[in-house]
Structure formats: C-alpha cells, structure tokens
Backbone:
C-alpha cells in the first residue's frame, strides 16, 4: 500500500477479497453503505461502518494502478457524488505525488 493516513490497515489484500480486492478485479467503484453487509468484508479497522473504494488508473490511460479506499465510522456515509469526485481526484493526487510518473 502506498501513502496511508490513519490507523494501521491491512498491508496485503488478495485479488477479489474484501471491497478493495473486489474493486481491483472489477475495476469499478464500490460504495458500501454498511460494511457488515458486504460478503467477505475485511475489517482492518473495527470502527469502520461504511466504505468507498475507487480504482486508480494511470493518468490518461485505462491501465490499472491500484485503489483508493476511504472508510467511515458512520453508516451510509458515501454517495454517488463522492464516487464521481474521487474517481476524478484519485489519479491527480497519485500523479502529483510522483507515484504514477
């Protein structure tokens, strides 16, 4: 995992395991209103109640790079507007830090 903020999370997640692994396989964003209802959810932080994960692609390409994962201690915290902005923001943030260059 790359830049991290918050409590220590899972360091390695297999493809198709948990929300992050699911997004890594499908390459489609996932909004999870209640993580306890997501089959196979990996509880890296017991305080997490909802989650949004968006795939990150190399800027200007369809080449998959990784995922951006945000958790919230509140149920149903993320919505379509969050997804839309995060999908636009993720490659810019990673690119500006030199991770994708």
Residues:
């Amino acid at each position: 995992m790359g830049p991290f903020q918050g409590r220590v999370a899972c360091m390695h997640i297999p493809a198709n395991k948990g929300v992050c692994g699911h997004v890594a396989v499908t390459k489609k964003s996932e909004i999870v209103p209640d993580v306890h209802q997501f089959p196979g959810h990996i509880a890296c932080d017991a305080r997490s109640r909802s989650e949004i994960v968006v795939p990150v692609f190399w800027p200007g390409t369809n080449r998959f790079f990784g995922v951006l994962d945000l958790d919230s201690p509140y149920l149903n915290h993320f919505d379509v507007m969050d997804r839309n902005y995060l999908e636009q923001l993720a490659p810019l943030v990673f690119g500006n830090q030199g991770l994708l260059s």
